[in-house]
């Protein structure tokens, strides 16, 4: 684990202990990304770098991708809130402010079926938060369509009958349903990582999880007498004009002695 050297956080250190982390390096930012990607005299090169950072960290991760794996290229945090006419305004205000306090570049979206509710919420928000907020007066069903296009990092369904809307949500990093579920519940209590896809990448990616650190390898074994399979391989290879792909199958079931008398010379097929 790497963490900035100034003001080491006791909570972070204790969390690392609970997770069984054995090595902690006091380095942060771009320097940490470089050290992890290339290694130093005291820090071994790693295979995967995970965790959010500022714009400079994001660019550093982008540049080392391929040399090492990365979890994602996370942009400024964002939340989209679909609200009905009955939601308590102070719930929405608190959730918008919670997102805005992360970053001056944080993105907040409010999609509501009631013009009166939007006006009430805006009156309660400070000017700085209003600058970050985009609002849309629309039906709840239309709001879901807009959200699927935005693919926000966080989505709150602050509506009574959220079950109906939830079925239509396709793109969101994490979804918080019902009046009583703030985004902060995902950050600090519910369990899933709050390192989530941003900038629309929830259309094709998911949040950080154990799966981020796992990979798959295919294991293939063929029997000697599987002539039907070898014939299929040869047919596909023939269709792609890959002569030695075809021969690698045929030599196993048609003419196993094909290369035997070639005297070190590549065969012409």
UniProtKB/TrEMBL annotation:
Assigned GO CC terms: cytosol
Molecular function in Gene Ontology: histidinol dehydrogenase activity; metal ion binding; NAD binding
SUPFAM superfamilies xrefs: ALDH-like
Single GO BP term: L-histidine biosynthetic process
Cofactor(s) needed by this chain: Zn(2+)
Keywords of the record: Metal-binding, Oxidoreductase, Zinc
Similarity comment text for this entry: Belongs to the histidinol dehydrogenase family.
UniProt name for this protein: Histidinol dehydrogenase
Organism: Endomicrobium trichonymphae
């Amino acid at each position: 684990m790497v963490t900035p050297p100034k003001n080491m956080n006791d909570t972070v250190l204790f969390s690392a202990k609970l997770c069984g982390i054995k090595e902690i390096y006091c380095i942060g930012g771009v320097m940490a990304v470089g050290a992890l990607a290339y290694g130093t005299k005291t820090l071994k090169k790693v295979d995967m770098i995970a965790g959010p950072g500022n714009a400079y960290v994001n660019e550093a991760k982008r540049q080392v991708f391929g040399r090492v794996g990365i979890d994602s290229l996370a942009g400024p945090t964002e939340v989209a809130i679909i609200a009905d006419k009955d939601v308590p305004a102070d719930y929405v205000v608190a959730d918008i402010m919670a997102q805005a306090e992360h970053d001056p570049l944080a993105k907040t979206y409010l999609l509501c079926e009631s013009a009166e509710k939007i006006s009430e919420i805006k009156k309660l928000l400070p000017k700085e938060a209003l600058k970050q907020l985009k609002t849309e007066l629309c039906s709840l069903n239309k709001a879901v369509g807009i959200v699927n296009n935005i693919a926000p990092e966080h989505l709150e369904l602050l509506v009574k009958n959220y079950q109906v809307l939830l079925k239509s949500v396709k793109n969101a990093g994490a979804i918080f349903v019902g009046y009583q579920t703030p985004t902060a519940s995902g950050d600090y209590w519910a369990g899933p990582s709050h390192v989530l896809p941003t900038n629309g990448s929830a259309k094709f990616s998911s949040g950080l999880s154990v799966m981020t650190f796992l990979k798959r390898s295919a294991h293939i074994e063929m029997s000697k007498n599987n002539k039907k399979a070898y014939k299929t391989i040869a047919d596909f290879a023939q269709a792609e004009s890959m002569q030695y792909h075809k021969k690698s199958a045929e030599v196993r079931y048609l003419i196993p002695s094909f290369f035997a008398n070639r005297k070190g010379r590549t065969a012409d097929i």
